[in-house]
Specification:
The protein is mainly α. 73% of the residues lie in helices and 0% in strands. The longest helix has 38 residues. It comes from Streptomyces marokkonensis.
């Protein structure tokens, strides 16, 4: 069992990458829909948008960051729990936080 748990984190890396990519895509779509509801605009401002004020840019960044963090954490957790259910081993070593 010790060999299996040492190899699992390496095997989980491509799965984790795919989950991360998927969560980023989902978070981007969720942010666009949220911005449309909040500001009734199709396009959110970015930091280099000359025609937008600080408040609007920082609001957009805060909303986007919160949505991204929630979606990524939910997808990461669901993926890890699915691996644990199917293999009996948690997919990453016992350490706190992200790399």
């Amino acid at each position: 069992m010790a060999k299996k748990s040492k190899k699992l984190p390496l095997a989980y890396k491509p799965i984790g990458f795919a989950l991360g990519w998927t969560s980023g895509t989902v978070a981007g779509m969720a942010f666009q829909k949220t911005w449309k509801i909040v500001r009734h605009e199709d396009n959110a401002p970015d930091a280099l948008d000359r025609d937008r004020g600080w408040g609007e840019i920082l609001l957009a960044a805060a909303i986007q960051g919160a949505i991204f963090a929630v979606v990524r954490s939910a997808v990461d957790r669901a993926g890890a729990k699915a691996i644990e259910r199917s293999t009996g081993t948690w997919p990453v070593p016992d350490k706190g936080g992200r790399d």
